[in-house]
Amino acid sequence: MKLKWQRTGANLGQSSGVEVEPDDEFEEPAMGWLFREVTRLAATLRRSGIPEERIRAVCHEYIGGMAYGIDSEPVEVKGVSYEIAVVATDPDGRSVMATDLFLFHETANSIVDQVLDPA
Questions:
Q1: DSSP letter string over 22-38?
Q2: Of 77, 78, 76, 102, which Cα lies nearest the Cα of 88?
């Protein structure tokens, strides 16, 4: 998949067409994002009083399910099927997305284990 989208800058009226292509450079920011989100979810569960032994199961279920949805489940809205794509944009405005080889689900489950079992 290749995307074309309209990006609007902080100032109204400042927009430009952006072409986003799959690139291996997507992996690092995607993993950083997943690591941050797993860390936030685990911390929220801890603050909510969820027992530590349940946190892993909840993180795998939620983060893994979200990632599986990004990988393979289109979203149906009013009879139209939409494929979900995650785009990473650097401070210079360069945008990249996952290649077909990047599997959110497998990466997310690995990151849950890294967050909850730091070596």
A1: E-GGGHHHHHHHHHHHH
A2: 102
Tell me the three state secondary structure of residue 86: coil
Q: With 90 as the cut, is the pLDDT of residue 68 above it?
A: no
Q: Contact, 9 vs 3, CB < 8 A?
A: no
What's the rounded Cα separation, in Å, for the pair 44 and 62?
13
Q: How far apart are CA 54 and CA 46, in angstroms?
A: 10
Which residues lie across from 95 on neighbouring strands? 89
pLDDT, tens digit, 9 for 90 and up, residues 5-17 = 544 454 444 445 6
Tell me what percent of the chain is helix, strand and coil, each rounded to the nearest 5: 50, 20, 30
pTM of the model: 0.77
